[in-house]
Specification:
346 residues, ten-stranded mixed sheet, two-stranded antiparallel sheet, 8 helices, 12 strands, 22% strand, Tyr_Pase_dom, PTP_cat, Protein-tyrosine phosphatase
Length: 346
């Protein structure tokens, strides 16, 4: 069993958690690129607006959602060790993250999830338990993770959803021990994230330094989304897309977790999957096809029809904001879609 202890060190100066500047998505495209993007966008928009929220809800409900435990043997074996947060949220064997030496064991409830241009764009995982905090941080250290998205709170509706696995005050350090292997995480700064775009989300950005075996260190940015409701959705503004834009240049996987690591987590992954297709100049697939591909990697991703609708509404809002869906008749259909969406999710 892993052991954890907290300690406080003198603070050390560091740059602001969101001080880096990156170019905006679709910023200054060439004329040819813009025409190609607009063509792909309109195809996706027209298909989405034809379905409307009711059709998308029916589409989501029609998708099969189950656990095939024959494809989750490591998950079943880890049950007795108490490494799984939920008995009914499985972890697929085919693309699960494996902890490598010198770590004393390989299992963690986490899966690599690909986007069209990146075979390991994400690590989708459950919220750390007290006994899996060391595993979580070693995973981040091992895979050179530069960004972590935490989409849940420690406590929600009176239920424990996540262990307090990271230090949140400048200079504080948390030390973990697992089978004689030690790993520590230090908070270098923690600020309320200031969005460039219009956004209602309350996000805390924390700069963390991970020191692993051999005393090598890695720096990661931890985004804690404080007000995304369990099994629900936040405002369909540009908040998620801005955070994803910040993390997109990272070479390592982006770690995403909520409590189970499938609902809110799956919503973020699906949004980036669509953006990845767009930025690569590919045809944007139907939402159903995309979600099936994601679920083949992280089982039962996206838990509710509201989350499925949220992804589509965010993308429609983004295209509208960029003035990439101003064709005749589209605006009226968009307005009708938005009106129905508000009735469903509010």
């Amino acid at each position: 069993m892993s052991k954890m202890k907290r300690r406080t060190n003198k603070p050390r100066a560091t740059e602001s958690a969101n001080s880096s500047t990156k170019s905006s998505v679709l910023d200054e495209p060439t004329l040819v690129e813009r025409k190609q993007q607009k063509k792909q966008i309109l195809k996706f928009v027209q298909r989405t607006l034809e379905k409307m929220p009711q059709g998308l809800r029916a589409e989501f409900v029609g998708m099969r959602r189950f656990n095939d435990f024959e494809k989750m043997k490591a998950f079943k074996e880890a049950q007795e060790a108490g490494k799984n947060r939920y008995k009914d949220v499985g972890c697929l064997d085919n693309n699960r993250v494996k902890l490598e030496g010198p770590w004393p064991h390989e299992y963690i409830h986490a899966n690599y999830v690909a986007t069209p241009t990146n075979p390991k764009r994400f690590i989708c995982t459950q919220a750390p338990l007290e006994k899996t905090c060391a595993d979580f941080w070693y995973m981040c250290y091992q895979d050179k993770v530069e960004y972590i998205f935490m989409l849940c709170n420690f406590l929600e509706k009176g239920a424990k959803k996540c262990f307090e696995y990271f230090p949140s005050k400048k200079g504080d350090v948390m030390d973990f021990d697992e089978g004689g292997q030690k790993i520590s995480v230090k908070c270098e700064s923690s600020v309320t994230y200031s969005f460039r775009a219009d956004a209602k989300a309350n996000v805390t950005a924390t700069e963390i330094v991970i020191e692993g075996p051999g005393e090598k260190t890695r720096k990661t940015t931890h985004y804690h989304w404080n007000d995304w409701p369990d099994r629900g959705v936040p405002a369909a503004d540009m908040a998620v897309l801005e955070l994803l834009e910040n993390a997109r240049p990272s070479k390592g996987p982006i770690v995403v977790h909520c409590s189970a690591g499938i609902g809110r987590t799956g919503s973020v992954v699906m949004l980036e999957y669509i953006m990845d297709q767009l930025l690569a100049g590919q045809i944007i697939d139907d939402g159903e096809k995309i979600l099936v591909k994601i679920c083949e990697q992280r089982n039962n991703s996206i838990q509710t029809d509201a989350q499925y609708l949220f992804v589509h509404q965010v993308i429609l809002n983004y295209f509208r904001k960029k003035k990439l869906m101003d064709e005749s008749g589209v605006q009226e259909a968009y307005d009708a879609f938005l009106e129905q969406y508000k009735k469903v999710v509010v």
